[in-house]
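Example record

The entry below shows one chain as it appears in the dataset: sequence first, then structure tokens.
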Amino acid sequence: MKIEILGTGCSKCKALEEATSKAVARIGGFHEIVKVEDMIEIMNYQIMSTPALVVDGEVKSAGKLLSVDDIVKILSK
């Protein structure tokens, strides 16, 4: 599973990246986490605000900081 964190490096973006890492550790298995900070790449996802969570190319959340439990639920589907 490829997980992308879209954001320019703000505190919420960093917090989402940390929460995602914790969620991946909780569910186990191999999951690639990629931080995307390039605005052109972020705009390709057609989101209006960051941070955003993308799983296997599909935007799952944008504009809010998810909890570890929220991310676990998203990744478990």
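Notes for this example: The radius of gyration is 11 Å. Strands lie at 2-6, 32-36, 52-55, 58-62.
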